[in-house]
Amino acid sequence: MSTNLSINLKRASKVYHEGENIVGVVVVESSGDVRHEGLALLMEGSVNLQLSTKNVGIFEAFSNSIKPITLISTSIELAPPGKIPVGVTEIPFEMPLRARQAISPGYPGLLETYHGVFVNIMYTLKCSMKRSFLNKPLNAGCQFFVQYKQQDPAPLKPVRCEITPATIRAASSAGARAAIPQFQVYAEIDSTVCPLDKPLTGKIRVDECSVPIKSIELQLVRVETCGCAEGYSRDATEIQNIQVGAGDVCRARDVPLYMVLPRLFTCPTTTTHNFKIEFELNIAVIFEDDYLVTENFPILLLRSR
Amino acid sequence: MPMYYEWTSRKKSVLKKHEYPSFDVASHPLKVNVINVVKDSTSKILMENLNKWSSAFEEVDPLLRFEQMKQEEENSQTELQVDDVTNYKKSWNTRRSLILNKYTTGEKLSIVSSFLPGGEKLSSFSALFRQVSNLNEKVKHRLEQLDDFDKGSVRKTMGLSQQEFVTKINMLNDEIKKAWDSEQRVKAFKIGIQCSKLLSDVNVMQFYPSKFVLITDILDTFGVLVFDRLKGKSYKQNEVKDIKDIDPKSIPESAKETCQNWLFKMASIRELLPRLYMEMSLLKCYVFISKDEIKPAIARLTTMIRGIGNPLVALYLRLYLCRVASKLLGKESEEFFYSNLKEFLEEYQQIFHPMMKRKFETQLLTLDKYLNLYVPAVDWLLHGTLNSNKCKDTLLDELLQKCEDMENNELLLYCVVNAFDSTSITKKSSKILELVQKSAEKMVLVSDILTSLGEHLCSADNHRQLASEALIQTWWKLATIIKSTNHFLQVLEPWLQFACTHLSTQHVNIILRGTIRYMIKCGKPADEFSGNFHFVIKRMLKFIPDVEELFLMDAFMPLVELVQTSNARTMMAKTVLSIFFSRYTSVQIEDHIIISSLMRLCCILHDSINAVTVEDESKVCAELINKFVQAVTYEDDLEQQLNFYVECRSAFIKLDAVLIALVHAVNALATRAGARQGRWLQRACAAYCFVTVPSLHCALARAHLYLLSGQVALLNNCIGQAEANFKALVGLIPDIPEFLLEDGQKKPTNIKVGGILSDFLSTMLVMPDNVDSNCKAYILSGFIKMIERIHWKKTDPLYYNTLLHILDVLSAMTQENYAYHIDSVLSNDKLYGSEDEFLEAVDKHATNICQELLVVLKMLGDTKETKKQYNLALAMFWRVVTRGDLSRSAMLSLAANLWMLSQKLQDPNNNKMAKTMLAALASDNSPASQTLLKKLTENSTKQS
Asked: What keywords were assigned to this record (chain A) (predicted)?
């Protein structure tokens, strides 16, 4: 006799906003009657933080891993102990998605789902069926995603910049490289305040370049800061790298910058008591001899229209 | 049964004059109707004809029905073409196959893929996927995997031939489908990415357009797979939905979500080129989310292509974008064609970037070959642009202005000239020539531009231009500096047509002379270019308004004979002759120059025939030469005409068909000659025929010609010649084979022989005897002897029918006045005046023949061929009744016996023929026939 337990959410996208009800069914599928000691559904949301080994030593990274921050934890009983008949049984449920009421200091409220390297914000539904002793309880899980409600669009904040050998030198005064090719690149980002659902746009123009260009790339970087009493770390890692120019592009022509922000790996720029999630954008021009010129723009991601 | 009956022919009193109804007609009813069929649509004419003939029937003629169906199909096709989407699809499909045919390579290709043989890595790869079960991990994993293909498994296969490459690509195509069907959709997606990555490789450039076609086919497959799955998720199976019918509002959330997922996946592809290609292949999936997004997406992609540095790759990317757009939007996509064209023009100089130059030069490509790689794509962009733009002239002006302003304008100029319609181009032709002239020195596609321009000028035929002379002059200046002879000839082809249709003969002649000079100057034998050369000549022949004029140009024949190898010369002669005759409108050729030129060509044709020439080949040659022979005329100079035929005979001795035609022609000449020219010409003609005929191979043809020539000689009162011909014919009869090989089939000759023989026999009636010989009915008795000598099967209808016909002639010969005469010839009736000796001789022959027939009758009975026996008996009976003298008892009893025999075999009441005969007999009130009738009825009553 085998019994299967699964959770099906009504909403295909599994994306919910605070205040909404999570509606779905728990499906019990079995080849015989199932006796059980109660069927419970648990909704959990938490922030997992991890210190990078780079900033604090390996030892501390392991020992001092920061305790997860619970964002939400509610449970309901779906069925009292009893018997579930043979076949497929669907038990509907409805759970409100609401932030915890008792506010402890530093409680950030319901945060958006986010998958990062050092910070993970995850929401799950867990269903468990307790069974008579000797039998292990049956468990099923299902992730769902939380998004903020959309705000009104923020005013655009365009940035422009010119990248020339001069600007590079100013940035890296070390001047390790002997001969920097002559070039002049103009870049423009339509707004550094970006709605998450909209692509990031802008343009780049190579006005002049004495050597052939190999590639022009757009790099999206997350900057995660984990800090608490025991330690503090700030790390920038790449989320995705998108090529906008392949090969020696035509001079003096606007090449559009266009990047769709990936889901799950991005979230609105967040700052809380314990951690921060920020994003940056790098524009990189790679010359044929793999010489790389980058320009960095911090960007603010928002859940807005 | 007494087996001997003496035959006595009945003398008929004066023949009854029948009054036949008659009326005056304007033309001879047997006159040949010459119909000039204007070739517009054969099927239409056919339809009309069929309609005409079948209108009387209520049922539709089956042939007509098929034709109607075909036409309806054509009509429905034209109706479909109104739909722009299919229109674009069609025009792409033609281009597609053109590209595949044109851009091929012998170079070794390489392919980079992780999905092609080298299986072990592959399987571990997919196993890796199955291990990952946690959804979250899986998603993450997939996203990360999209870019780097698990480095170890990517392998580069090098040194592939083109064919192998195509096979590999097809394998990938199958692989995509397989992966998709086995739920490994991400794998399918990855194959798509890898394929599009292959398009960034321009290492074997001349294959690039074909590679593009092959790979975009795979991308199309992938796009369709995704689209169909989304459609399946959104609608029930049979709810077939066109893209237009899909309403984003009615799409279920899950399908939308899947679609979004695909788009996110696509958007995270690291490299630009595969990302663009994949987005294009998934473009139509945007309909599931929002229709309004498609157009902005296309516009965005249009600008994003700017990021591609390699101009060739970028241009083909634009081509794919426009193709996808046209499939999706139809007419509305045309704005994108234009915007892409503009983008291309902005980047135009990238094509001539030193880096590209280095690239194609290391691949040993010439500049013109390199530029040709761009043509299909630019052409496609222009194709769509032209469809949208109402005012073509302004667009053309604009583009030509661009050409003028830019360097290296040849590619654009060529494509523009190629793509625009003829009327617009013709208007601007002088401007275009000017542009070419300006930079002719360093331009590489000159010949292509000129060819294309020439074609336009030709097709805009009713556009009469005053400046055509100036145009030609400019063109000629440009053409003569073309270095490659092949290109020169290629350019010459359309321009010569233009010159032919628009300029005077003198001008054309000058061009031809120039061509000869060029060909000689180029230093290579013309044979190397015989193919192109052939096209040029063909074109000129087809389009010169008056073909005769060609031969009057002094440069034409030398030009035709510029090629030296016999093969090429034969081909040329054949083409010239066949086109000449197909276009030559009047029936006769009189001009001596033309005659001698044609004679020369015919000789070339004839000389090419040898022992190994296939039959069909010589048939075609013979047909052409025959046309020539039949068309030549020297008007009233008959002697000259005969001389011509003599010359032809010696020139075309290898071709029987020509000889036959010559004999016919000479016979016609002989009848035309008349008394006015003196009899020597007629004799000469007769002699010509008599001498020519024996050299033919086919006995049947010889027999026929002997007969004809004899008849003509007889007609001209050349008794001696006629006799000689007939004698030869009689001597020839045993040689005629029973079967002839015709079109590879054995065909019996007996029907034809029967025809010839009866024709011959009826001629015998008017043929006077040679007074010098003692024998009466000299040739006829010779013939009878011959018949006896030949061992024909006696039961063969040919044999006994011939005997019956001889019997007919013999009876006719006994008459006082023969049924017909030739005016100038004294026939035997006049010659002998019903002399007894003559009549006796004739009757003796008749008795013998009659005897022989009875033998045949018996043999037929022995071999149980009742039907034949019955028919023969009746036929004989009828001859006895109508031709025999029934007052003689022998004849009477013969008739009675024959009738009895026939009655025994079959009831005469059942046979119409027998009944009619009896009725005819009854209506004849001569006493002899009445006696016979009585006897017959007596017999029949006795029997019953």
From this structure: Endosome
What letter would DSSP give residue B678? -
Could you give the count of Cα atoms lying within 13 Å of B416 in the half-sphere of its Cβ?
Answer: 29
* Closest to B735 in 3D by CA, of B756, B721, B761: B756
- Checking if the pLDDT of B152 tops 50, the result is no
CATH topology of domain A3-147: Immunoglobulin-like (2.60.40)
Residue A63: what pLDDT?
Answer: 56
Architecture of domain A159-302: Sandwich (2.60)
pLDDT band of residue B311 (cuts 50, 70, 90) is: very high
Query: How far off is chain B from A102, nearest CA to CA, in Å?
Result: 31
Which of the residues B233, B268, B270 would you substitute to probe the A interface, choosing the one with the greatest number of A C-beta atoms within 10 Å? B268
**Residue length of chain A:** 305
pLDDT higher than threshold 90 for residue A202: yes
Break chain A into its structural domains and give their ranges. 3-147, 159-302
Six token digits for residue B526? 């013309």
What chain B residue is nearest to A238 in terms of C-alpha separation?
B144
Contact B273, B201 (CB under 8 A): no
Instruction: Reduce the DSSP state of residue A111 to 3 states and report it.
Output: coil
Residues A246, B139: C-beta atoms closer than 8 Å: no
Q: Which of A11, A258, A265 sits opposite B304 (nearest CB)?
A: A258
Question: What one-character DSSP code corresponds to residue B551?
Answer: H
Domain residues of chain B, as ranges? Answer: 37-82
Residue of B nearest to A9 (CA): B254
In contact, A76 and A93? CB cutoff 8 Å: yes
Whether the CA torsion B494, B497, B503, B508 is positive or negative: it is: positive
Per-residue pLDDT of A278-292, as tens digits, reads 999 999 999 888 888
Percentage of chain B beyond pLDDT 70 is 86
CA separation for the pair B600, B606 (Å, rounded): 10
**Could A249 and B307 be called an inter-chain contact, meaning their C-beta atoms sit closer than 8 Å?**
yes
Q: Cβ(B351)–Cβ(B374) under 8 Å? A: yes
Answer whether residue B588 shows pLDDT above 50: yes
B885-915 pLDDT tens trace: 877 888 888 888 888 888 888 766 677 778 8
Residue whose pair of structure tokens reads 């830019």 in the numeric block: B406
Chain-chain contact of B307 with A264 (C-beta, under 8 angstroms): no
What are the pLDDT digits (tens) for A108-141? 888 999 999 889 999 999 999 988 877 888 899 9
Q: Contact at 8 Å (CB) between B266 and B192?
A: no
Say how many CB pairs under 8 Å bridge A and B: 88
The pair of three-digit structure tokens given for residue B366, joined into one six-digit string: 């010439």
According to DSSP, residue B352 is labeled: G
